[in-house]
């Protein structure tokens, strides 16, 4: 399974290093062979040796250039990073990234062979408009995206579930994942208020290939517990 931590605008470089060390030693001690990804804040990116895959939460679709406030591929190369999160709802809704901008970024990093975790998710208003409208909306977030891309991981994260403590029911997650997965072969993660108390149930669902965790992953201990759940589910 794939267990990913999106650290967002949290943890300094020093805190991130301590965090990574804690995760690495846990993976080693427990002989974990799940795919573990961590997306630190931009200024906390660093070269990393170990089993955890470090990815960027964002980067502009350029090698380098005049794009104030952004980083480019050169800055990821410096730390050997070739994994990126694209289309996260906070970038779409707070930072105003349009589908066109998301597609441009996707294509740039796809050409370079990056592992891409591509996020989609609906707002509460769209969810309340009914299943058909919701599925159409979710599928519209795939417009321009190559779903056959071999290094693609998709994350379904309802916007209303992110950071709110609310989650869809387990039945809803199963149904939506099933419908989404009819359109592609890439692994599909669930994200949105995943925590120690619900991770085991979510990970056990059909069609859930892993989780993308925000707030609850800020505590290395909690993140490790979720990794262990995934490991136990695969072993048993
Ligand atoms: P959350 O965030 O776990 O805090 O809801 C998930 C995400 O934004 O990826």
According to DSSP, the number of beta strands is 8
Number of helices: 9
CATH topology: TIM Barrel
* CATH domain class: Alpha Beta
In percent, how helical is the residue content?
Answer: 25-40%
Shape descriptor: globular
Low-confidence stretches: none
Task: Say which molecules are bound, naming each kind only once.
Answer: 2-phosphoglycolic acid
Q: Going across the major beta sheet, what is the strand order?
A: 3-2-1-8-7-6-5-4
- Named CATH architecture: Alpha-Beta Barrel
Biggest β-sheet, characterized? Answer: 8 strands, parallel
Tally of separate domains:
1
Describe the protein in words:
- With 236 residues, the protein is an alpha/beta fold.
- It has nine helices and eight strands.
- The protein has an eight-stranded parallel beta sheet with strand order 3-2-1-8-7-6-5-4, covered by helices on one side.
- The model has no long low-confidence stretch (mean pLDDT 97).
- The protein binds 2-phosphoglycolic acid.
- 2-phosphoglycolic acid (PGA) is lined by residues 6, 157, 162-163, 191-194, 212-216.
């Amino acid at each position: 399974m794939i267990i990913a931590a999106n650290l967002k605008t949290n943890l300094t470089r020093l805190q991130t290093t301590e965090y990574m060390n804690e995760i690495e030693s846990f993976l080693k001690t427990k002989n974990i062979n799940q795919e573990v990804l961590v997306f630190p804040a931009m200024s906390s990116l660093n070269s990393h040796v170990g089993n955890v895959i470090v990815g960027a939460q964002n980067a502009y679709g350029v090698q380098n250039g005049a794009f104030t406030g952004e980083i480019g591929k050169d800055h990821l190369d410096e730390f050997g990073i070739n994994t990126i999160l694209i289309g996260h709802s906070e970038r779409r809704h707070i930072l105003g990234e349009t589908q066109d901008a998301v597609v441009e970024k996707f294509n740039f990093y796809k050409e370079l062979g990056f592992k891409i975790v591509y996020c989609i998710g609906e707002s509460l208003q769209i969810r309340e408009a009914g299943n058909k409208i919701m599925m159409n909306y979710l599928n519209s977030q795939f417009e321009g995206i190559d779903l056959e891309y071999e290094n693609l991981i998709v994350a379904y994260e309802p916007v209303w579930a992110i950071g709110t403590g609310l989650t869809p029911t387990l039945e809803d997650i199963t149904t939506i994942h099933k419908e989404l997965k009819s359109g592609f072969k890439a692994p599909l993660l669930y994200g949105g208020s995943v925590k120690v108390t619900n991770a085991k149930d979510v990970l056990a669902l059909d069609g859930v290939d892993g989780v993308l965790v925000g707030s609850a992953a800020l505590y290395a201990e909690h993140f490790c517990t979720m990794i262990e759940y995934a490991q136990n589910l695969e072993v048993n």
